[in-house]
Amino acid sequence: MKELNQTFVLFNPKDIVSGDFYWLYAKDNKILFAAVDCTGHGVSGALMAMTAISAMNQAIDQQDKGQIDVVTTLTILNRILKQTLRFKDIDAGLDLAFCKINHSNKQIEFGSAGLPLFEYKDGTVREYRLDSQSIGYRASMLDYPYKTTKIEADGSSFFLTTDGLLDEPGGQKGFSFGTDRFKSMIKYFGNQPMKGQIVSYQKEIDTYRGQYKQRDDQTMIGFRL
Question: Is pLDDT of 2 > 70?
Fold first, then answer.
């Protein structure tokens, strides 16, 4: 993600290939990117990820490149995936966290389908969760009214994660890593240089997992503007 100077991507597939992926589109002074968690892992998850990447690119191609909109992108993506998977007689889909970054005014527009965004600033962590409806499944509403929120990004760090990290078993009783522990981890390491944080987070995750096996694909993205 060279378009963002201060960033890291922590990517831990459960198997050789993954149902998680991260996606990016850059045009002029704007960047769109997403952390995406597709149904399944391994080969089945990777095949779903390939379908989803194609659908995301199509969703961008169907818009005026100077006026790409987060809600429109999610709506088109949902339509394309529902149609594609219906023809294949597959009930699958994805969750995602989607950011549109405007470098000119240091503003982020965030939209989601099941995955959160975390903001770290001045020693505090704020969690943004907007829409829980997943994309592409048979039960997903065709024209669901996805919402967005705009965030002033100056002085903040931001983190996206798929649920494979939050659901990671570990500790003495095999409980999930969880959102509270994830937020505490960000709060503890959030002042470190962004490039160095990935080492700290990976160590925390590995230590917590201990004797347990990784349950799912894991993706975590951190960035500052």
Answer: no
